[in-house]
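Researcher: Go.
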Amino acid sequence: MTDQQRQADAVFRDLFGRPPVLAAAAPGRVNLIGEHVDYCDGFVLPMAIERETVIVAAPRPVVGGEPIARLHSTAFAETVELPLTPGTGPPAAAPGWSRYLAGVIAGFLDRGATIPAFDAVVDSTVPLGGGLSSSASLEVAMATIVATLAGHAIGPLEVAQLCRRAEHEFAGVPCGVMDQCASVLCIRDHLLLLDCRSLAVMQVPFQRPDLRVLVMNSNVRHALNDGGYAARRADCQRAAAILGVPSLREATLAELEASRGALGDTIFRRARHVVTEIARTLDAATAIAQDRWAELGELMAASHVSLRDDYAVSCLELDLLVELAGAQPGVIGSRMTGGGFGGCTVTLVEAARADAVMAAVARGYRQGTGRECTLFTTRPAAGARLVWLPAS
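Model: Structure:
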């Protein structure tokens, strides 16, 4: 049992007066490259991080009425009761974090699963609002718990799709499927090259033990349901319609240039980011496989410029973090990651220089913004897993 599982176990015992019997863990993710292309049927290259959501749970008898789930969040110090019968939905006043879980439960009920009454405690080390998929890790951990308690067979890709639907319908975020696939499918010491159209995956070995992935959180919070994300997605859909293609995956730069007048400047730039980012992602996977790390750094830099200038989802704080990191010895590449409008950057750095890089960036960021950034390093981690807890 990990320290995080022990802490959640202790909270569970204190709240519910008995031990939990199982735990699920699902990681957050950082996307090395391939940003804002998953909903355009593109390619992405994420990895799981060594920060995760842990849920400990145990079934309990139904005492009159319909079965419910009692769910407690350690982050928000809140407990919510969610119905486990089809068509009922969460209470109108249910807190925002519980709606992701309600969506997962609804997805299983729609599949015909019978979910027994249960109690659960949710604990997460994935930063909220940082672009590291805290919501996907929450959804996937809950799906792992519910599938086990219900004895319901479901494949990994089905889990990812069910969790994406939960985010669409219950949290109002029209996300692609990358985050959920990464949380389910990633394996240790590998990057996940995901074709977001076919959902075909390739595990790309991360063969450099002397490298670390440095995640730097600007601590500028973003909310992906505030309109900016949806507006970018709508721009991409309009671009595809004007070009006469099913998605921007099928578009070429030549076609974009030929239709620039019809697209207009803003939609042209949004589409140009997507088309070039898909190409960069495939090139990055090849560069990693062929040990061409300097080329990977150049691709990461080009990705950030495109996200900043064409897609307009960066901000001054993210730009400063990327600039500061790029000036440090031992850094191979750096870029913003996640939905943008704040959140995190991802930087590839030599392990031996990581501490010095973090100190220099933190100092420069404080001087430049008056804010503190939060930094940690990670290796590619494992995806979701289930643990049966000892009965004690």
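Model: The chain has two domains: 3-202+381-388, 206-378.
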